[in-house]
Design goal:
Blueprint: H1 2-6, H2 25-38, H3 45-60, E1 67-69, H4 73-81, E2 88-91, H5 101-108, E3 113-116, H6 128-134, E4 141-145, H7 157-164, E5 168-172, E6 189-193, E7 205-209, H8 211-216, H9 254-270, H10 272-292, E8 296-297, E9 309-313, H11 319-328, E10 334-336, E11 340-344, H12 353-362
Parallel strand pairs: 2-3, 2-4, 4-5, 5-6
Antiparallel strand pairs: 1-7, 6-7, 8-9, 9-11, 10-11
């Protein structure tokens, strides 16, 4: 673990990993080295793409052929939504908008139907019980975030898989990949961007889809790189490629592919479980410090239910002002509305920083 921790620049006060995770030195060097080579024309796009897909495959324990690189979670979800013709997708309106607009846009075009998950959309976690109660015979897929951006709730993927049977399970993993050791094998499609917990920088992301999911997808956003013989410039429509490669729109950035590779190699050198243990220790400490100063913590308390996100609430609507105070003292967090602040800690967060943060955020305004 020491070499993992030493790979990052110190980021005291950065408690905003659910928004952006500062990349490691090796990721920054990968980008710099790539562009130095590219300046001389020394670029192998295919090798960079394959290297990154192989690392994603190791992370998720699935074949690299079932992985495609995308620049963002949003684009990956749009690819999937526009490929599920005739589907009915169950999704909570409490999801982050990136996991809503693809389904809404596809529904507007008559590609699929959206089924809302009933209940309090802003505070109620997506549980197997809620999913089971909302399923209909027409429901063919369920979309869920592995970790809820709003509360830090960790979805019970195994339980959801059990209640949905052979329906597709589509997992938005951006708030978990690389930081939470979840059973992603229960998902038919797993999508994540790498700029948060993977600490790979912007433009790094992936879509992984099992053969069962790929078999029912009809690519609508497949471009010239997602077909057979893409270099056969004959003016004819070519058949789509097998596997996840059919999701290709155009050539991706080999620079961001290399950045993702380096980030995943670093995570793989210690294992996600080890990263999660350090994050969990810091979450526990932060919650204890906030409790000690009387701050209302609304995130899950049980380690089994939470990830790296801790959300605090002020019923008096003072959250924006408290965020401003934190920023003045070099502490970065995210504000949600007038009442909530979202803290997000990583393995590199200093335990000694957390009492100071709790004191700052709880002091009278």
């Amino acid at each position: 673990m020491e070499h993992y921790l030493a790979a990052f620049e110190p980021t005291p006060g950065h408690l905003d990993f659910a928004r952006f995770g500062p990349p490691s030195r090796s990721v920054c060097e990968a980008a710099s080295d790539f562009w130095s080579s590219a300046a001389t024309g020394d670029v192998d796009e295919a090798a960079e793409d394959l290297g990154a897909r192989e690392q994603v495959a190791r992370l998720l324990a699935m074949p690299a052929a079932d992985v495609a690189l995308v620049p963002s979670t949003s684009l990956g979800l749009f690819h999937v939504a526009f490929a599920l013709r005739g589907a009915e997708v169950l999704v909570s309106r409490g999801e982050f908008p990136a996991n809503l607009y693809p389904w809404w846009r596809a529904e507007e075009l008559g590609i699929l139907r959206v089924r809302d998950l009933p209940g309090d959309r802003l505070t109620s976690p997506v549980t197997p019980e809620r999913v089971a109660a909302a399923l209909a015979p027409t429901t063919t897929a369920v979309a869920v975030s592995a970790v809820d951006f709003r509360t830090g709730w960790r979805a019970d993927l195994a339980g959801i898989r059990q209640v949905i049977g052979d329906r597709l399970l589509i997992v938005d993993a951006i708030q978990s990949a690389g930081a939470v050791d979840l059973p992603f094998a229960h998902g038919d499609i797993v999508i994540a961007g790498g700029q948060k917990w993977l600490r790979a920088g912007w433009g790094t992301g992936f879509v992984a889809a099992t053969p069962r999911a790929l078999a029912v997808m009809e690519p609508s956003l497949s471009g010239w790189t997602g077909v057979e013989r893409p270099g056969g410039y004959d003016g004819l429509r070519h058949p789509v490629l097998p596997g996840a490669k059919h999701l290709g729109l155009t050539n991706g950035s080999p620079a961001t592919a290399r950045m993702l590779t380096r980030a995943l190699e670093l995570v793989g050198s210690v294992g996600v479980a080890a990263v999660e243990r350090r994050i969990s220790e810091r979450v526990e400490t932060l919650i204890s410090e906030l409790d000690a100063v009387g701050v209302d913590v609304v995130s899950p308390r049980r380690p089994a239910d939470r990830a790296g996100i801790v959300v605090a609430r002020w019923a008096d609507g003072s959250a924006p002002e408290r965020r401003r105070r934190l920023a003045e003292h070099g502490v970065a967090v995210t504000v949600h509305g007038e009442e909530r602040l979202r803290f997000a800690v990583h393995a590199t967060t200093g335990l000694d920083d957390l009492p100071r943060v709790a004191a700052l955020v709880s002091a009278p305004l």
